[in-house]
Design a protein that fits this description.
With about 550 residues, this protein is of the alpha/beta class. It is built from 19 helices and 15 strands.
């Protein structure tokens, strides 16, 4: 419920603070005092759009803030928790409207979006004004109202699980069918890719080996020169290293004969000699094997170009190219089995749809039972509101050929207010008074099932008076047993029924106009009821009448 409402610099309101309680809260005041402004401020808390015209003259920003007691509203608390706005039994909503356009929304102190506020607001307050009945007038909401009234939401939730499975199968089928439409083009591409890669007969690591071979071929003459020079230096020419090294070996032998302490042995020197000799022969054989083959070099260039082109197309490395070949071959296998998969899935969908339709038809039958009960309940209520011949009905029309997430029904509420009038959709009702009474009747009937914390009735008394007004007041009291109710009224018969009474007053001070709201004490309430009965002049007779009305309703 709405526990506190704070408004600052909004329209003609300078600063307003008011605390509300549960039950039936009546709000009255002179025409133009600012009651509708308060409703406008409440609308901001529900996610209504804001503009700079709402800001009080000569001020930079308007602020509307409210504290809600949401204990017992487990669904709402869960939603707030999931949205990351904290946990607990209290909720603080704040809207800041700025002339600079930097409007802000805060939920429990967290910066939020207008969409998030609207999602929460629908469970906080339902405003029922003479021109603000969108929720019930919108036919798209009638099915939800009917299911809630009939206690069918658990049954609908079970149906929704089956519908979600059905939709997943349909989405999978659409994906397969889209692939099938593109199959020929895709298959051609895949076959080309497989053929191109397979035809290249790639071996892992081949590109590195070929690049090394090309480097050798491109430098054959240089390699031969190096090898020949090294061989000649070691062995071939006069004064070669090995010839000179033989003298070194002989010198070591002579030293050892005289001084065996030399760390070099004859055997070690012989080993070094033969290793140098082996290196010389290896260089000679290497030079003999080298030959320049322009044909082979050209073939290497062509092969490396082919491998490079494949790498550029399929991933940058030969491993990636081979992986792409395997993937394309696997996808070709899948495509070849696509028709079989579509056929099997279509069979599953047909079977799932048959089960879903059975569930939807059972739900539809329950809804028609609920619709008959709703008709009896609503007609019973509106006939006590000076609409003795009114008829109400939930018209179902044709069933949907294809089920949606709520079933196969699309009911709409119809009304005939007078004898001889045909039934018409609620949205086609022209009379504001009739509409207000229908709204009250529906709210009364739906009060036990509604999940919203607070209901605001704005000018529910439009077009009624006398005994009907007293009945309206009693029905508001009945609605207030299940919800906090805020009712703006001009009729004393209705105002007397409230658990508390607030008065809206507009005053001029210092050349500025300001609106305030105050909770009336017993004597103040008596004076307000007297004013509502007798107008400007508060006669003793009117005051006595007011006292009798309050006494009759509150003992």
């Amino acid at each position: 419920m709405l526990a506190e409402l704070n408004i600052r610099n909004f329209a003609i309101i300078d600063e307003l603070q008011v605390a509300f309680d549960g039950g039936l809260n009546m709000i009255s005041g002179e025409t133009g005092a600012g009651k509708s402004i308060i409703i406008g401020a409440v609308g901001l808390l529900l996610g209504d759009r804001a503009n700079a015209d709402m800001i009080r003259s000569f001020e930079d920003a308007a602020v509307v803030e409210a504290l809600f007691d949401i204990r017992g509203q487990d669904g709402l608390q869960g939603r707030i928790r999931e949205m990351g706005f904290g946990d607990g039994g209290e909720l603080v909503v704040r809207r800041v409207v700025s002339r600079s356009g930097k409007n802000r929304v805060y939920i429990n102190g967290h910066l939020s979006s207008l969409a998030s506020l609207a999602a929460i607001g629908e469970s906080l307050i339902n405003v029922c004004g003479q021109h603000e009945h969108q929720m019930i007038l919108n036919a798209e909401n009638h099915l939800d109202i009917l299911d809630e009234f009939g206690g069918l939401l658990p049954l609908r939730a079970a149906y929704r699980e089956k519908y979600d499975r059905y939709r997943l199968l349909q989405e999978k089928l659409r994906g397969l069918q889209e692939r099938q439409l593109k199959r020929a083009e895709r298959e051609e591409l895949l076959r080309y890719q497989v053929g191109e890669i397979a035809g290249a007969d790639i071996r892992a690591g081949e590109d590195a080996a070929l690049a090394e071979e090309k480097k050798v071929l491109a430098n054959v003459q240089k390699l031969m020169d190096f090898a020949d020079t090294a061989y000649e230096t070691l062995y071939g020419k006069g004064g070669a290293v090995l010839a000179e090294f033989r003298n070194v070996v002989s010198a070591v032998k002579e030293i050892r004969k005289i001084d065996s302490g030399l760390k070099l042995t004859e055997q070690e020197m012989e080993e070094i000699y033969y290793r140098i000799e082996e290196a010389a022969f290896t260089l000679r054989e290497y030079a003999k094997r080298l030959s320049f083959d322009p044909g082979r070099l050209e073939a290497l260039d062509e092969r490396l170009e082919l491998l490079g082109r494949l790498k550029r197309k399929y991933g940058g490395t030969l491993d990636a190219v081979l992986t792409r070949q395997a993937e394309a071959e696997r996808e070709l296998e899948e495509i070849s089995s696509l028709e079989e998969e579509i056929g099997a899935l279509t069979t599953d969908i047909d079977a799932e749809r048959e089960l879903l339709m059975e569930e939807a038809e059972a739900l539809s039958a329950k809804r028609r039972e609920a619709a008959a009960a709703l008709k009896r309940s609503v007609e019973g209520e509106i006939r006590t509101l000076a609409m003795e011949n009114a008829q109400f009905e939930a018209v179902f029309g044709d069933l949907r050929s294809e089920p949606n997430e709520k079933g196969i029904d699309a009911p709409e509420f119809y009304l005939s207010a007078n004898v001889g009038e045909e039934m018409k959709p609620l949205r086609a009702i022209a009379s504001g008074g009739e509409l207000s009474r229908i709204m009250l009747a529906l709210k009364k009937v739906l009060a036990r099932t509604g999940s919203v914390g607070t209901i605001v009735f704005d000018e529910v008394d439009s077009g009624i008076g006398g005994a009907t007004a007293e009945i309206v007041g009693q029905k508001l009291r009945e609605v207030a047993r299940h919800h906090q109710v805020l009712c703006i009224t001009h009729l004393p018969q209705i105002a007397c029924c409230g658990d508390r009474h607030y008065r809206v007053v507009k005053r001029v001070a210092g050349e500025r106009t300001n609106t305030s709201v105050s909770l009336l004490s017993g004597e103040e309430r008596l004076e307000e009821i007297t004013r509502m009965l007798g107008g400007i002049e508060l006669t003793e007779k009117a005051k006595e009448h007011a006292r009798e009305m309050l006494s009759a309703r509150h003992g």
